[in-house]
Every structure is written in C-alpha cells, then in structure tokens.
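User: Predict structure, ligand magnesium ion.
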Amino acid sequence: MTARETAARAGLPARAGGAAALVEEILRGDARAAARAMSLIENGAPEAGAILEAVYGKRPAAPRIGITGPPGAGKSTLVTEYALLLRREGLRVGVVAVDPTSPFTGGAILGDRVRMGEHATDRDVFIRSMATRGSLGGLAARTGELCEILDAWGSRTTLIETVGVGQSELDVAEAADTTAVVLTPESGDAIQTLKAGLMEIADVIVLNKADHAGADAMEAALRSSLAFRKAGGWKPPIVRTVATERKGIEELHRALGEHRAYTARPDVAAARRVEKTRARLRNAIREGLLDAWLVDRGLESELDRAAEQVLSGGVSPYRAARELIERMTRNGERPN
Ligand SMILES: Nc1nc2c(ncn2[C@@H]2O[C@H](COP(=O)(O)OP(=O)(O)OP(=O)(O)O)[C@@H](O)[C@H]2O)c(=O)[nH]1
Ligand SMILES: [Mg+2]
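Assistant: Predicted complex:
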C-alpha cells in the first residue's frame, strides 16, 4: 500500500501525508519512525490520533508485561535478562520504561540506558523511556498508545518497567496483560503497603536478589499475604531470581506464560476487566476519602497533633493512624 492509500484508509487529511509515510515506515519495522511517532504522541501533536488510528490492528498485539516493584529491586536487570531470553527465541522485544519522575528515581532513566546497553546494537530490541510529568491520570492510556506503536513496529513481547512508589504502577497494571511485581528480601518493611497495593496487582511475584539473606523469610511473608486473596482465582506464583546471575529467568518466562494462558480463557478475561476496574475504583476512593478527611473534616489539624505524639515517642505512626481512622469513622457514623 502506498502512503497515500494508507492515509486514505485511515481517513487522514491530505496534509497529513507525512504522518501516513511515517505509519508505513513503522509497519516496515523502522525503529526511528516508531520513535518519531512516540514523540508525537507524547507531545500531544495533532497528527498523533491519525497515526494511532492508522496503525491500529495492523499487526497482532504483543503481550504486554508490566514489571513493577520498589526502587532498586532489580527491575531493569530483570528486563534486560528477560529481553535477552526472548531474543534467543528470535522474538522482537519492545521495552517501555515509565519514569514517574519522583524523587525516588532521580537519574533512573540514564542508569537504565547504561544497564540496558547490552541491547544497544540490537535492531530487534526497542527501548523507550517515558516521563509521566505528573499527569498520572492519563498514564495508562499513554502507555497503551506507546505499546500500540510497538505492536506496529513488530514487537512480539512488550515489557513495561515502572517503579512502584505511587499510582503509576496501578496505571501500568491497567495497561499490562500480566503484571510481575518484583520484590527483594529487603522489601519486608513494606509488607503493609504491599498487601494493599502492589500485591493486589501482582499476577506473578518475583523474589529477586534471592542471593541475599532473608529470602526464605520474605517468601513465607509473601505466601501468608497471598492467603488473603479470593479463593478459586489465579494464585500468583512466587519466582525466585538472581537477575545479576541470570538465575530464575526461565522460570519467570514459564510463570508469565502460564498466566497468559490462564487469562486467555474467556470467563477469566471478562472477570479481569471487572477486577481491574474495581482496583481503579478502590484507588480513586482511597484518594477521595483522604482528601475529604484532610480538607472537609479537618484531619489536617488532627495530623499536627498526631505527628507531635509520634515525634515525642508516645505512639507509633501506625497506631496513631489507626486511632485517627477510628475517630474519623465514628464521626462519620454520627447522625446529624
Ligand atoms: N545481589 C543482587 N543484586 C542485584 C540483583 N538484581 C539486581 N541487582 C542489583 O541491584 C541494583 C539495582 O538494580 P536495577 O535493575 O537497576 O533495579 P531497578 O529496580 O530497575 O531500579 P530503579 O529503576 O532505580 O527502581 C543494581 O546494582 C543491580 O546490579 C540480584 O538478583 N542480586
Ligand atoms: Mg530500573
């Protein structure tokens, strides 16, 4: 098909001939064209919509695998090693590294480039960093759009790395078909948050840095927190890896494949859509409740008092938080 025909099919205006040519180049597997299209999308350029429309459905959608977890858990190392495994199978690999531009990840992208340098000369690996610029609301959609460009370029598996420090991992989980949560033996302190947030989105749990002390204890803690999951559904397997020694990568590949097979079942696919929507609702409610309590119901001043108590050594932050929640909930139940 010529550029003009492609443009006509996509309903592109004549002046968007440049965009149509770009689409053709992407579909031929040209990485530079794909990169240009991604920049147009990220910058919200007027031709972005036409490009996305033109590439849509032209190539099979590659499975999208989210890799998330706390800062420094070994996500980039795992992505690099897993991409190598996929390349050995002859598959084209797309990588999207989502940077939530939080203070936790300063410089992470440059670091990732260096670490993923192993793929620098491989024309069949495409690595793209995406800054979120605080616009978390649209992150899932934006990530999905980049994945569609990668599909058109010919990706057969797309890996999406993001740091699980806030909302971004939930957005990425929404954009991904399978989410692997990467933890380490050191993640134990965070188990409170893990139960509520990261654990809820985990389809596969990777216990990386299994060479570190405490791996057994962490695995036991993970198993007990998984017990809270609804029975009958998918039980996230726990895969131990030592990414720096290329250990466990095959097992990770197998676990991801099993999850993919599971989600291909029609009943499961429908239920997953509901589950993902529930997760987003829960998240929005959590945020909304906190805002309402902080502003409308004067939690802000209560926080000052609680902070003083904690700082004076009187109570732990967890107990102070629990007491605040109990007080706020009681107030909420009081009839006017
Ligand atoms: N001992 C050990 N070190 C590891 C392992 N995997 C990764 N590391 C090291 O841990 C550090 C962080 O690894 P990264 O892959 O950059 O971690 P990340 O999760 O991508 O980090 P951010 O993107 O900054 O959140 C690096 O120094 C790695 O070499 C592992 O299995 N064992
Ligand atoms: Mg990283």
